[in-house]
Every structure is written in structure tokens, then in C-alpha cells.
Amino acid sequence: METTMGEDLVLLALRPNGTMHAQQKLRFALSGAELLLLAELGRLDPAGRIRVLDPHKTGDALLDAALADICKRGAGRPPQAWIASARPGLRERYLERLAGKGVVRLEEHRTLGLFRVNRWHVLDLGRVQQVRARLDAIAASTGELTPDQAAFASLVHVAGLDEALYPGGHGAQARARLRQIARKRPTSASAAAAVPTQDPASWLLSVVVLASLDAAAPASVLSGPDSFPAQHDVHHGVAHDHNTHHSHNGLGPSHHHTDHGGFDAGGGHHH
């Protein structure tokens, strides 16, 4: 079953142990993906300040929720302001959708009979491998990309997933390529808004990527890529077990998994 760009970002963010990379910045990429899709569907114009062009539902529950939120508190604001706004449970809604498609499954356990452990296990390993292979191909590319490829790579960079998925010296070239794709754009929102519209897809992508990078910038300054501990709630990692924070913050080498085919539906790791 096909997945959306937002769902693919969440799949890339899942670690084999059921916790997530990009705890602080993933939400900016997800909101950016939604804004881009809504603009492509003609529901809004994100340039300068968001203008809602068509408030009618799209038929996609997550996009419709985003559109309703934009109508309520995003219209008339710069796109980066809406992208930066808190939307509690956004990642969880994507995980729940993936679960509904049979791609992941939430498993609940008890540790010592006291602590609730909830982890997302990937069931459709093939889908994860396809998403990762697509990103690897983009990261290794040197030529022009399609708008979809550029959007995907740019939002991976927005989320900070490039740092998590391509760590260390051996990942430097891939990180540099993804950064180049994301930042090969006008240097300000006003400049992006003034780009001629002979290539509407590229212009639209420029507007949304710049807004997403601007929204994520404070999180980048505060945390660096993927450096905050996981938020231990019902969907990620070990709930209420604060002694495990050091093992889920993505800083240690054991968390740099470059092969997401290593997810195990039963909770183990394949290497």
C-alpha cells in the first residue's frame, strides 16, 4: 500500500528499537509536507502570508485536519509561523495511520510489572527499505531532481534526519547533498515570493522549504540534530522510565542505523 510523504518521513524517523530520531524537528517537516500538498491541491497560497483559496475537504483526514487548523489560526500569517506552531499528537496521528495500513504495529508491555513500555514495530519491512533506497538514491545523485524528489530530500533535511541517517565521516557526502538540495533556494521568504512562476512546482517548493527551515531553526540552535531525549509517551520508547533517556537521545554510535531494513517485527534487530 502506498504511503504519503509525511508517512515516509515518520518511517525514516523510526529506530529499530521503536523510538524515534528527530524528536524536536520532525513536526516541522510534517507540517511543511502538509502545507506543500495543500498548496499543490489548490487549497491555499503559502507565499508571503497564507491565503486560503478553497476550504473544502480534500478527503485525506490528516490534510483536512491541517487545512482546518490553517483556516482557524494560520490564514493571514507567514507560513513559517503556522509550521512552527505546536500541534500536539501530530507524529502519533501519522503512526496510527501507518498502523491502519499494516505498516507498523504498536505493542504494549509492562516492565517489572510497573512501567508501561510501548514500541512501534515495523511490519512492512519492504516499504521501509523502499523509502530508504529512494532517499539513498537522492543523496547519491548529482543531477537534476524531480519536484517530488527535491521536496522529499528537503524535508528530510528540515527534520534533521540527514544527520541521524548518514552519521559520521562516511555520511558526510550524503548529508552535504541533502543540505544542498534543501538550501538551493532563494535566501529569504521575500525573495522566494518574488520568484517567477514559469516553474510553479519549484517556486512552491522554495516557499515551503524556506518556511520550514525558518520554523525549525530555533530547535536546531537549541538542540542540534537529534540531541534531545525521546519523549517517553504512549507511542515512543519507554514510558515514564527516565533512567533510559541516555540510550534514546541518538548521540551514541549504537543509534546510527543506516539500514532501516533492520527493523524487526518481533522487536529484535537484524543486521
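The record above closes out task 2.4. Task 2.5 opens with a second protein, given below.
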Amino acid sequence: MLDPGITGGGGAGSDASTQVNSAAVAAIQGRNQAGAKALTVKEKRSPSMAQQSRPQKETVGRVMHEFKHGELRIRGSGPKVKSRKQAIAVALHEAGATRQESRAKNKEALRRTKAKERRGQTAEAEKEGKRAQDRTMRRATARKGAARGAAGRTKQQLYAEAKRRNLQGRSTMSKAQLERALHH
């Protein structure tokens, strides 16, 4: 806390100096003008999801596919999963990506699930065939850029090219407008 003697004492301008000094005290204490605790940059960010490995993404994709087709069951043979949230929890558990388990248990769950997938003992493989399961799992990890092809570029890439060519009005252009402007 600041010493009260630092505030500048009395006089005609004491109200203004008191406001400035109270703001300084609040800043030192980590609070904003209203008195609420100021958030640091780290606290302002939303909690990010953990990065998943390729095998984990494949497993999550397969499990969500089973849920979508009404094949996902609790513990394999129990009642069908009806809730999307529950399906996500099952997918993360099978993929070894849940925050509720230790790293060792997650690793073991992923190993066990991958072995089950290789043997073709998933609900999707049993109903639609192993090749259908493999297709679903490949699709889960396919990159979005691959579908675009070599010729197609993102708006960000087009904008960078327009900036390099010093194209006027590029910031207000849509992707289609950028493509037309760059191909003239």
C-alpha cells in the first residue's frame, strides 16, 4: 500500500491527485478502477484443449461415427449412448485423452483400443466391415488443406500474395474478390 503522505496533501487540486493516486494504488494491488481484481493475460485466455496425437484423433473420429449411427454402447455391450456429451466422454476415454485419468492409464487405454481396432472388434467394424472403419479413421485425420487441392489457396494465402503485390483495397476484399484480383 502507498504511504498516505505521497498522495499530494490538500489544496485546490487534491481531488484530481487523489483520483490519480487511487488508480495507481489499485494498479499496484492488481485491481481495476471499479475495484474488481484485474485479470492477467494468462487468466483472460480460455482454457485450450490438449493436442491429440494422430491415433487419438482416429479413435475419437471412429467413436463419434459409431455414436452418430446409433452403434455406440456403454462398456461395449451395455445400453446405447444417447447423449452427445457422454459420447465425447467415451471417445476421449477410449482414445486415452481424458483429463480424469493419469498419463499411464491413458496410454494403456489407447493401446487397448488400438488393439481392438486392429482386430476389427469395434461396433462399426462389426456392422459395416473393417474397411469402412479404416475409411472413417482416415477421414478423421485428413487435413482440410488436402481437400482443397494444390491449386486452391486459403484467403490468408491470397491476402499475403495481395500484400506482396501491394494490391489496393485488399483488406476489404472477400476470398473470391482476392482470387479475381490476383488472376488478372
